[in-house]
């Protein structure tokens, strides 16, 4: 509320604020202006209040109108809802009646269709009986197809008596039809059936409608009928022998020719009836031949192998013929379930029966092989002028192995071939043993022994290189699991033994010659040795012998095995020298110098006399080996020459280089005239000795 309710109050308040009369003169004009503005504001306020009142009245009337309208709408909605509920009940009632009518219509339609199909089935059964009786197999095939299709319609109702009755009638009819078809085909083979080729071809279509199982049964019956005369013929006593084997296969050739003449493409080609006939023939033949083999006490190897060879040839011919004839269907996913997809086992169907009875053949091959090895060993000659400086017997042996495997592969890829593989392994052992025996026997003739040992080393190298190829050939001639069991690593070791024996014999020969020279060395008084000059006589004699020995073997051995042997020889010479030095009681300074000179001379001449015609890595490797190996002799001589202090200082370095250091220590001390307690610093090496 305005604190100044009247102009008077306003003026009064102003006078209170400004009691001085003079101070009011200046604001009179302002007061008048304020009064004027206040009056105007009051007027405007009255107008706004009036307009607001008018607006409130109008809004109130509008709200009342809306309420009346809403009540009317709610009333109408309720009326519509009531009408909708009545309509829904009416529609539901109508739909229920329509649905009942629709179900009745469907049931009536299904019943009419089922009745029609049932009548068709009854008609089909009657016609089927009629056509089966008249052997009209083209119509029979069509009716079987139609009946099968109609039967699918009644699967859900198969327990209904009428359906059970008609299905039972159909099953009996099909059973009789199968027997009739088998009789027709058998009688046709006998020649007593007057049916035409076309009728039998239609019969084949009928057979397919009766299923794969019956088709196979029919073919089996036909095959047994065709093979039964053969079975009876060769069951007779006069034909129960291996000599009649080729006659068996001739009979089969005639029988299949007669079959083709009679049938004239009666059977569909994709049925592969020929395959089944051959398979039946093979099964009967296998049983009969097995009986023959079991009954024979003494098997004639020639007759046995002739029969087997004829059998293998027959199987191979059949297999090739069948592959070519049925190539169109083999190995393919055929939509036709009656088409052949793979051949029955023809190869081995008969010949496998021979396997358990081929021991006489293996024994025969063993006798011939061992005799061959003995003959080629006896005929060996050492042709040092020839290109191949090895024993010809080894090449002849492997050539025979190749022929043996080829011959045996004609008969078997399983147990027999595996036994032949064992036989070859036995022959390799025999050959190796015989060569080693010959090495021992050759020692009586020194010159011959050297050459023979070199030939043996080259022969062993050739055999080791040839054996992997022999093993691969064996594997190729064997089927699994036999092929997985071929292993010739032990046989390779036989030839390593041959090689080692030859090298050992050569080294024994060298030792027998050189030992006398070192005996001369031991007779020298090395403690009183004073005249140092050229190499000692024992070294000169040794070098002279080695020169002749290496010259003999140098042009015989292959480069790799020459170096291999020379390395062995260098090790032997080094050990021979060191062992001889250790046998000397005492050596003077000059004596030590002479021995060092001897070692140097030996190294130089070993490199010289072993030099190959052409410089190679092998030659350089050998030269390095000579220096490295004989350095042990040098080191021992230097240790003997050293003072105690130097010896104690340098021996650990020697021990790092040579494993023999602990055992060498006592011998070196003996030559230095020292005892263990004189060198306590080396106690750890004495511990190793102990």
From TrEMBL:
Task: Report domain Vps53 N-terminal positions.
Answer: 7-379
One Gene Ontology cellular component term attached to this UniProt record is:
cytosol
Q: Does the keyword Coiled coil apply?
A: yes
Q: Which residues form a coiled coil?
A: 24-51
Q: Which UniProt keywords apply?
A: Coiled coil
- Record's protein name: Vps53 N-terminal domain-containing protein
Annotated GO biological processes are: retrograde transport, endosome to Golgi
| A Pfam family the protein falls into | Vps53_N
Q: Which domain of life does this protein belong to?
A: Eukaryota
